[in-house]
Design a protein that fits this description.
Blueprint (H helix, E strand, L loop, with lengths): L1 H22 L2 H14 L11 H14 L1
Length: 65
Amino acid sequence: ERLVEGIQDAEKIRVLRKKYTGENTPESLKKLAQLEEAIAGFGTLEPSSDWQKRLSDAKRLLNTL
C-alpha cells in the first residue's frame, strides 16, 4: 500500500512540475518552487532524524497543490 502511495505521489509531482512549468506565471512558479523545496531533502540515501515530519509536510503540500 505504501509503495502504491509513493508511486502515486511521484506521478503527481511529475504532473505538477509539467503543469507549473508550462503555465509559467508568477503564481505557478511560486508553487513549483514550494514543491521543489519540499522534496529537495529526499534525494539522499541517508535519512535525517526528522524525515517523518518532512515527509508528512511534503505530503500535505502535495495534497494542497
